[in-house]
Amino acid sequence: MQFSQFGQKLATEAGIVTLMDDLGEALRVNPDMIFMGGGNPARIPAVEAVFHERLQAVLSDPQAAYQLMGVYQPPQGDADVLDACAELFNKEYGWPLSRANIALANGSQSAFFVLFNLFAGEFSDGSKKRIQLPLIPEYLGYSDLGISADFFAATRPNIEILENGFFKYHVDFDSLQITAETGALCVSRPTNPTGNVISDAELLRLDELARAHKVPLIIDGAYGTPFPNILFSPAEPFWNDNTILVLSLSKLGLPGARTGVVIANPDVISAFARANTILSLACGNFGPALLQQLLKHEDILALSRQHIRPFYEARMQHAVASFRRHLSGLPCYIHQPEGAIFLWLWFKGLPITSEELYQRLKLRGLLVVSGHHFFPGMKDDWPHAHECIRVTYCQDTEMVERGAALIAEVVKPLFEICVD
Ligand SMILES: Cc1ncc(COP(=O)(O)O)c(C=O)c1O
């Protein structure tokens, strides 16, 4: 069988597919594996209880149950849900939004596929544009979303070493190049994999640059405000009509709902809705129906602020303390955890690659993600990209403790050999 170029791009060895297969296979072979890879959100019983109650309400109302199962959503998403979202953003942030500014998607991953390919790739005048990632490491799920080759441009960050074994990435504005070949800028905020939160000042500068070059600034808020609000440091919510903000229900605890929310100016939204209709015909109804209930009962912000953020903050603090205890004495820096659900560990001068470390940890019964996957668009080889790993702290605290101990057991001898 021979696939087209499009087919080859989507149907062959994409990094994310190999990684997900490998994680799945490892768990199948050893179900007792400590799972600190992947991006599944944690289970939070109080939050799950509200989801169940709201879903029950939908199912027990015959008209709502019919709407859930028996009708297609309109291209942009259900108008009542769009209105309720607009009202939430107007009320919370004073953003002047109406339903024309909002579209629903089958998960934010599919929204990025559409958005990236709307703004980058081949243009009818023969030019070619790329998605510019102003700060890598960035979300590995972007890597293979471009239909055409050479789809991303990326800028390495400045690294600030902080006290207590922390470090932080900053946008290197001196190296960031926005040219006629830039189609859009994109940042995840908070960032997967690092837990970094691009500062308000950095975001304002990116916005100015984007507007000056007449390209949109895409902000991936999968972990951000107003929901699920997995933020441990202050960050102003940001939107204007040159911004495309993409939210998701997944990290609220609803990855199975496959629902993303795109907030942008009406031209972008109508282009997005048309493309999404061609691809999916309509979004699924489950996520929007639940979202409507959560908005109607004013649950979504309350759950995010009173349960989800505090839950992850406590898990993050525990994970930091565990890793500090086990890795003390090693040249290991932790990226300052400002949000999201991961710790990003940098083993400075690691004598083997992070991929090799991942393999060795897997043999010992621990799954993490090698850091080198998170550098989409990087053209040169940067040793730093092979010195980091991402660990999630969504597992219970005892697992995280065991994971930290195992990492220390595997990494310590590597540095001792190096000193000899
Ligand atoms: C930063 C980021 N963006 C987008 C996504 C895609 O999420 P979903 O398609 O479940 O909305 C993820 C998933 O892990 C993510 O971490």
What keyword list fits this structure?
binds pyridoxal-5'-phosphate, 12 helices, six-stranded mixed β-sheet, globular, eight-stranded mixed β-sheet, alpha/beta, 420 residues
Beta-strand fraction estimate? 15-25%
The percent of residues in helical segments reads 40-55%
Structural class call reads alpha/beta
Detail the poorly predicted runs: none
**Main sheet specs:** 8 strands, mixed
Oligomer: single chain
Radius of gyration: 21 Å
Termini separation comes to: 54 Å
Number of helices: 12
Q: How many β-strands, per DSSP?
A: 16
Overall pLDDT, averaged? 94
- What shape does the CA trace take? globular
Bound molecules: pyridoxal-5'-phosphate
Characterise this structure.
- By secondary structure, the chain is an alpha/beta fold.
- Helices cover 42% and strands 16% of the residues.
- The chain contains 12 helices and 16 strands.
- It has helices at 5-11, 15-29, 45-60, 62-70, 79-93, 108-119, 200-212, 266-280, 286-296, 299-327, 354-363, 397-419; strands at 34-35, 102-105, 121-122, 128-133, 152-154, 158-161, 166-170, 182-188, 217-220, 243-248, 260-263, 332-335, 342-347, 366-367, 369-370, 388-392.
- Strands 2, 3, 4, 5, 8, 9, 10 and 11 form an 8-stranded mixed sheet that branches.
- Helix 5 (79-93) crosses helix 9 and helix 6 packs across helix 8 (266-280).
